[in-house]
Write a structure and sequence with these properties.
Length: 243
DNA sequence: TATAATGTTTGAAC
DNA sequence: AGTTCAAACATTAT
């Protein structure tokens, strides 16, 4: 389910409930949902893979993790983790992490780190990258404080697109190439958004979960890479390793 | 049917 | 004290 663009879709999909009052809250989350009764939703936001339901003085943070799902004006047979009912409908979340935040979200979240946000700053991302010169690019792209919203699919597709081997070291990647990676992290994420909305995302994958290179046709390498130990799909022929 | 997968946090172990 | 790692969570398609 997750990766930033999917959370943008969720945020757009619930807009009809902005300004609505919760008339019933339920679910098996351990958070104290009794406080939600009669509370009015100020806004819905997203920061990378975080979905935020903003009330006066507090915010509910939903993270779908790997398996989380949601339904709008529908229910799944399985028990909801969090269910919010309004006069005109309901939102239900399943198998997700739910956390109430009481601090000011503008202090918690660096909006310039979110590749989907208007305030995304490629410059800041670049300077954060320069602070971890020894890291592998496959790990850096998954670093949410740098590329909030980027997940394993976007990682693999961006690296294929810019022809960089996932195990390349940050300090060995030429500056122009590093800038290209930062730039494509955002560009690809928005294409992901469009394709996901059109239900054609998988069709557009060129590397992720693919057998052969879309460029040269040779078999792709599929290995677990980086300290984060996530799978990478890459072409040893087309993607250059900067070591 | 067993496996693997778009993710993150926690706490034990070193 | 800082780092690393496995475990835990939980769902569904193949």
């Amino acid at each position: 389910m997750p990766e930033g663009p999917s959370i943008v879709i969720l945020t757009e999909a619930v807009q009809e409930f902005t300004g609505q009052t919760v008339i019933a809250a339920g679910g098996n989350t351990k958070e104290d949902i009794s406080i939600l009764d009669s509370k009015r939703i100020i806004s819905f936001k997203s920061w990378g893979k975080h979905f935020l339901i903003c009330f006066d003085h507090f915010t509910i943070r939903i993270h779908l993790m790997l398996f989380g799902t949601y339904r709008i004006n529908e229910q799944k047979p399985s028990p909801a983790r969090l269910s919010l009912k309004f006069g005109s409908g309901e939102i239900n979340f399943y198998a997700c992490s739910v956390k109430f935040l009481t601090d000011d979200i503008n202090k918690i979240y660096d909006w310039t780190a979110d590749v989907m946000n208007d305030r995304w700053s490629p410059r800041k991302a670049l300077s954060k990258l320069r602070k971890i010169p020894d890291a592998e690019i496959c790990d850096a792209l998954l670093e949410q404080e740098i590329f909030s919203g980027v997940g394993n699919i976007i990682k693999n597709e961006v690296l294929f697109r810019v022809r960089v081997h996932p195990e390349s070291k940050i300090n060995a990647i030429p500056a122009t190439k590093l800038r290209e990676i930062v730039r494509q992290a955002r560009i690809y994420s928005f294409e992901f958004l469009d394709w996901k909305k059109a239900f054609t995302l998988k069709k557009h994958w060129l590397a992720h979960a693919k057998r052969n290179c879309a460029n040269c046709g040779r078999p792709l390498t599929k290995t677990v890479t980086g300290r984060k130990k996530r799978r990478s799909f890459y072409c040893l022929n087309c993607q250059k390793a900067y070591l």
